[in-house]
Specification:
about 400 residues; FAD/NAD(P)-binding domain; D-Amino Acid Oxidase, Chain A, domain 2; eight-stranded mixed β-sheet; 20 strands; globular
Length: about 400
């Protein structure tokens, strides 16, 4: 299917960041927009396979893109849900230090929360933890009232509906294949034919680095997929968790650790872990792509990361394969959780950018090129931050248009 129409902006990726960017571009009413999505629906990958948390902005380095956009995006997300009758709850969460050695890291989280302007963050003693989560244990904690829960697939579907209502197009089953520059225009070849646009925005998530290379841009990083696996509490054990219970994360990694999340649709999830996946869409152990594996092991940054963090990697694999080890990590927060109280649920895959020196990129990464903007690292809290980060991407694109 070919279309002679020339769009102002073509966005690759129908996840929450791509659709939020399209919405922002449409605000002035000046620009035509098309969103190209590989799958048969929006929110098929990272957006639709996460735990649905609206993050407060507690964790992120003050002044970073993550901090700024998470805080602004959080309030924009709550407002959007309110205006579009999408169910959400601003339920709050607690972060628990299980042992004394975690207290300095908890202190740092509290400092970051205050520096990032969070309201109502409260330090909890061992006894006060019980007031919020009667079955949780720890030596100290933080209560963070601005955290919430929502269904991000529902949010993205509402974004898509608004894009269409504003005259934009969302083309599903349209995987991006190649790019040709034709005078002032860009010609994108997709599995559904040719698309012409004046400007390209890459929100390709798990494939964002590959898309950048196809477009002639050196991303100077590679996406490494990490699978996050979830368990679910049995119905009769859901009373063990009121809202959200998080551990103190390891500051060496951009992952938040296995936690408990009450879902907006009901039920309580436990997870995710962070295990290396052997396919970019590697949602199970059986998902393998020799092309993706070769790309990973031929990247020097991968071996530099592996040499530094192989112990963590081995531990994550063990926990991934052993329900007993997974349950033990849950018991650090809620000791009364038993082996029979949880069952395997689903998994998500995080598109984690890795630089050539083997460093896991901690902040959002946006690269601009002629007639293009590439979003090359947008893992959590990108869903929370989507309306804010979408505004920033749109502003950069309009300025360069």
């Amino acid at each position: 299917m070919s279309n002679s129409k020339i769009y102002d902006f073509a966005i690759i990726g129908g996840g929450i960041v791509g659709t939020a960017t399209a919405l922002s571009l449409q605000k002035s009413g000046k620009y035509s927009v098309v969103v190209l999505e590989t799958e048969s629906k929006v929110a098929a990958h990272q957006t639709g396979n996460n735990s649905g948390v609206i993050h407060s902005g507690l964790y992120y380095k003050p002044g970073s893109l993550k901090a700024q956009n998470c805080i602004a995006g959080r309030e924009l997300m709550y407002r959007f849900c309110e205006e579009h009758n999408i169910e959400y709850q601003r339920c709050g969460k607690i972060v628990i230090a299980s042992v004394e050695e975690e207290i300095p890291a908890l202190d740092e989280l509290e400092r970051r929360g205050i520096a990032n302007g969070l309201n109502g963050v409260k330090r909890l003693s061992r006894e006060e933890i019980k007031e919020y989560e009667p079955y949780a244990v720890g030596v100290a904690g933080l209560f963070v009232p601005e955290t919430g829960i929502v269904n991000y697939t529902e949010v993205t579907e509402a974004f898509a509906k608004n894009i269409a209502a504003n005259g934009g197009e969302i083309r599903t089953n349209s995987r991006f294949i190649s790019l040709i520059k034709d005078g002032n225009n860009l010609v994108l070849q997709t599995t559904q034919g040719e698309v012409q646009a004046k400007f390209l925005i890459n929100c390709g998530g798990l494939h964002s680095d590959t898309i950048a290379r196809i477009c002639g841009v050196n991303p100077n990083l590679q996406i490494i997929p990490f699978r996050g696996e979830y368990y679910k509490l049995k119905k009769e054990k859901e009373n063990l968790v009121n809202n959200l219970i998080y551990p103190v994360p390891d500051p060496k990694f951009p992952f938040l650790g296995v936690h408990f999340t009450r879902m907006i649709s009901g039920g309580v999830e436990a997870g995710p872990n962070a295990v290396l996946a052997f396919k970019r869409e590697g949602y199970t152990h059986k998902d393998l792509s020799f092309g993706d594996i070769y790309q990973m092991i031929s990247y020097p940054g991968f071996w530099r990361m592996a040499s530094r963090h192989y112990k963590m990697g081995i531990n994550e694999f063990h926990r991934s394969l052993s329900k007993e080890l997974f349950v033990k990590s849950l018991q650090k927060l809620v000791p009364s959780i038993g082996f029979e109280d949880v069952y395997r649920e689903g998994a998500g895959v995080r598109a984690q950018a890795l630089d050539p020196n083997g460093n896991l990129a901690d902040d959002f990464r946006i690269v601009e090129a002629e007639k293009m903007v590439h979003i090359l690292n947008a893992p959590s809290p990108a869903a929370t931050a989507s309306l804010s980060i979408g505004n920033i991407i749109a502003q950069k694109a309009i300025k360069a248009f």
